[in-house]
């Protein structure tokens, strides 16, 4: 798959995820806005009902006050004097039948009171018709007087409410404890069983009462306001403000589904990023494997061609008659066979390391002695290219528990790389050093070769990775040497890192290994 195709797929997936995330955020925003509007509408409706209840309470209070004042002027309040002793209250009872719309009959008993001079029963019985008419007229007059009296009371109450109620301070018109109970009842009836704080603001804008002491801090801006006694003149209106501290939690509780939605979205995002990472990694590994195959083909072709040529030369009878030439050709075949075996073994060895941990034959050795022996063996190869090898043994405690063969291979690989990547115009300078640091053994191999760019210092230990050199391939290899080195060091519970010199000239590999005593 081409790199451009991978980037196109990544862009499409990123755009789709961004669109999905935008829709989710927009949907949640709409839900929160709708729920907030519904919440505010419910609170306003409840507060309006509370305001009406307060108006009814005030009207009832004025009615009771006027009725109490009216009782002081009730007719017949004065005592009976001597002039009225000749009069009595004559009581007549009448039965009225009323038929309702359903055909039912109701009987109502009426009694009338009339003040008149005493008349004997015999005289009344002689004039029944006239007494009934007189009593009916008296009853009508009494009802008329009562209607006029009650109407006067109502008119007086209305006058007092219109012209005197709004002149009183709000604290005299409202019982704040009753107001708190009204609010709590209305909110619960409308499904808002939430803690709240309310305050009453008078016509001058001052806080007259607040349900909770919040110090000098005013209520937050997210409050809902309702006019108390809306029929008061605008200049004398008082206000009720209510604030819900847990409003945000209440609104968010209605969108609890967003939590799993966010979790799943994050899983999709992580999976998407991981997939892209894997795709690019596989592409890089694929390119490395292709380079590995090309390099391996070239490396294997050389010894195979040499062995083939030597075999053809052995067929010549003249060569078989010359023992020196025969020994030379046989040596070439032997050397190339060993080289071929080494290349094949190196590939198989790396495949084994990928599947499982290497089998190590551990034993106690002295790192200083091991480094001296390797340096003595490698010194001839360095001198062949006009270089020199220096050893600096500063480690006082150098006893380590390692596999001697693998550690020897590690140090050989590092020194061999210094020879391979030397600068042809500059004599090679190779330094091997040991020292102790933080209770561990440190071994370094440093050269003055072409160096490694800083962006490649960590990648050089990856399998099949080779530092890009453009179209030049002066040094052939598989990109397995340093991967093998890191694998062996890590299997010995150690670590290795690479450092580049000033101006990317020279390379320094530092190995850390645990000591036996630690």
Molecular structure report:
This protein has 518 residues and is of the alpha+beta class. The chain has helices at 3-71, 121-126, 128-163, 170-173, 176-189, 247-252, 258-314, 317-320, 323-355, 367-384, 404-420, 481-491, and strands spanning 87-99, 105-117, 197-201, 207-210, 224-228, 238-243, 362-366, 388-393, 399-403, 429-437, 440-447, 495-500, 507-514. The strands form four sheets. It has a five-stranded mixed β-sheet with strand order 8-10-11-13-12, covered by helices on one side. Strands 4-3-6-5 form a four-stranded antiparallel β-sheet, covered by helices on one side. The protein is rod-shaped and about 180 Å long. It starts with a helix and ends with a strand. The model is unreliable at 73-94 and 110-126 (pLDDT under 50).
Oligomer: single chain
Strand content: 15-25%
SSE sequence, one letter per element? HEEHHHHEEEEHHHHEHEEHEEHEE
Helix proportion: 40-55%
Give the CA-based shape: rod-shaped
Number of strands: 13
Q: If you compute it from the alpha carbons, what radius of gyration comes out, rounded to the nearest whole angstrom?
A: 55 Å
Strand order of the largest sheet: 8-10-11-13-12
Instruction: Report the biggest beta sheet as strand number plus sense, adding barrel if it closes.
Output: 5 strands, mixed
Q: What are the low-pLDDT stretches, counting only 5+ consecutive residues below 50? A: 73-94, 110-126
Give the helix tally. Answer: 12
Mean pLDDT: 76
SSE class: alpha+beta
* Termini Cα gap: 50 Å
């Amino acid at each position: 798959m081409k790199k451009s195709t991978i980037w196109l797929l990544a862009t499409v997936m990123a755009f789709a995820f961004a669109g999905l995330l935008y829709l989710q955020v927009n949907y949640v925003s709409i839900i929160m806005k709708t729920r907030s509007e519904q919440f505010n509408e419910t609170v306003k409706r409840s507060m309006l009902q509370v305001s009406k209840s307060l108006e009814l309470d005030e009207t009832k209070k004025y009615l009771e006050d006027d009725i109490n004042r009216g009782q002081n002027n009730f007719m017949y309040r004065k005592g009976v004097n001597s002039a009225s002793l000749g009069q009595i209250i004559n009581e007549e009872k009448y039965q009225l039948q009323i038929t309702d719309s359903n055909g039912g009959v109701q009987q109502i008993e009426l009694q009338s009171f009339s003040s008149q001079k005493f008349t004997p029963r015999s005289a009344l019985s002689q004039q029944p018709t006239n007494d009934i008419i007189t009593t009916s007229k008296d009853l009508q007059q009494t009802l008329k007087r009562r209607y006029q009296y009650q109407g006067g009371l109502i008119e007086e109450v209305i006058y007092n409410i219109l012209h005197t109620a709004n002149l009183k301070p709000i604290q005299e018109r409202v019982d704040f404890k009753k107001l708190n109970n009204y609010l709590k009842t209305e909110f619960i009836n409308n499904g808002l069983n939430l803690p709240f704080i309310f305050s009453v603001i008078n016509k001058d804008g001052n806080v007259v009462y607040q349900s909770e002491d919040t110090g000098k801090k005013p209520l937050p801006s997210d409050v809902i306001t309702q006019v108390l006694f809306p029929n008061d003149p605008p200049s004398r209106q008082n206000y009720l403000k209510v604030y819900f501290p847990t409003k945000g939690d209440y609104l968010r509780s209605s969108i609890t589904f967003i939590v799993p939605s966010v979790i799943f979205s994050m899983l999709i995002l992580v999976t998407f990023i991981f997939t892209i990472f894997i795709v690019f990694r596989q592409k890089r590994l694929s390119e490395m494997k292709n380079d590995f195959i090309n390099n391996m083909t070239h490396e294997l072709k050389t010894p195979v061609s040499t062995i083939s040529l030597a075999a053809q030369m052995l067929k010549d009878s003249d060569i078989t008659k010359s023992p020196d030439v025969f020994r030379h050709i046989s040596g070439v075949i032997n050397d190339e066979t060993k080289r071929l075996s080494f290349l094949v073994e190196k590939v198989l060895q790396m495949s084994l390391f990928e599947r499982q941990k290497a089998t190590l034959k551990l034993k106690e050795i002295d790192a200083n002695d091991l480094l001296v022996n390797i340096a003595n063996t490698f010194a001839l190869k360095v001198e062949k290219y006009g270089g020199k090898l220096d050893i600096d043994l500063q480690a006082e405690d150098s006893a380590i528990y390692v596999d001697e063969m693998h550690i020897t291979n590690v140090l050989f690989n590092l020194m061999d790389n210094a020879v391979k990547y030397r600068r042809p115009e500059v004599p090679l300078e190779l330094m091997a050093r040991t020292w102790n640091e933080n209770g561990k053994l440190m071994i370094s191999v440093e050269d003055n070769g072409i160096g490694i760019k800083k962006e490649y210092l960590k990648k050089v230990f990856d399998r099949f990775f080779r530092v890009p050199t453009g179209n030049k391939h002066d040094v052939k290899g598989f990109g397995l040497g340093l991967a093998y080195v890191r694998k062996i060091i890590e299997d010995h519970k150690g670590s290795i890192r690479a450092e580049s010199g000033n101006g990317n000239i020279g390379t320094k590999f530092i190995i850390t290994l645990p000591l036996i005593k630690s």
